[in-house]
Amino acid sequence: ALELIDFKNALEQFQNLVEKMIIQKTEESSGLYTKDDDEIDYEKFYTTTRTLFGSAVKDQDIQAFFRKLMSNLDERPEWLEIFGCFRGENDGMFSPSKESMVLLVSEKQQITHSVVKRKDVIKGIVKVPLLHLTVTASQRGVLTVFSKQCRVYVIYVQMDTAWITGCDFLPNLKYVVAVTESTIILWDYKSKESKSDGFVIKPMKNCLLCVCTVTVADNLAKDTILMGDDKGYVYLFTITSDDFIMKQSKAEKESQFKVLDSESFDIPKRKLHDDWVGRIKYFSALKRFGSCSTDSTNSFVLDDIKRLEDYLPVKEFSVPEGVNAFTYCGKAKVIVTGG
């Protein structure tokens, strides 16, 4: 408690120091300032800051804070910056063995595992907060799961001519889902059997461009995903653990993934846009899904997933030149779109 009080006092003195510097600089610009013993130059700022916070601050951070403050008085830096909390990647590295006396700054950790190969790109990255996982999918078929303990699960999906266009995680079945231009890939990342790592559902008639999981914890034996294609259709696909057993194809038994016939699944779809579905997302807080397109007439749709089956009118918005990105902020209760 005493350390906390001392820090608050030190922080208050530091903020007073900053205010004095701003007043001094403002008066200098207007020609009203007269130099005296209270003048604050860099040496005085450095000495005072070092006295207040000790070794918790670094020389380069003090210098950067002073330079940033003097260059633009209207946009003063946050006090956190004096501890290097907004340090860029090239501004220096934290020493893993030394912790700040005031704040514990999370260390950057580099994973040396090569996620993608040459001439490959990441097409999807998803965080799974409840399981502390991060899922990535590359265009040419590398699916990767990173755990909190930095354990890495990787599989290379043997692609034909189609490329992966998006990925997500099925929280109930514990599968990674990825979509290509013509297939749906389901990968059991914890499986140790080389011949049964997952399933491929094909063929899909239109080119799939995006995928997301519907996060509804009403049934632990099934998961629901939404997909968008290049014809403006949005698909509603529910898969259960029984589907993996009942619908396995005998063909291609020796392949890496077992093949499931898409015709054996009931996959409702509805045309919501007149152009490509660029992005799709389910907002559990709203119990609604959103989909967007560069279509200027039906640019953004926000409604219940039941609309994909009952064909009642949907809430849609028109934006000139369409929408290619959107997100929801729970605090502000607003949806923001970018076109």
From TrEMBL:
Alphabetically ordered keywords of this record: Repeat
Superkingdom, natural source: Eukaryota
Regions crossing the membrane: none
Alphabetical list of InterPro entries matching this protein: WD-EF-hand_domain, WD40/YVTN_repeat-like_dom_sf, WD40_repeat_dom_sf
Protein name per the record: WDR64 protein
Gene source species: Vidua chalybeata
Gene: Wdr64_0
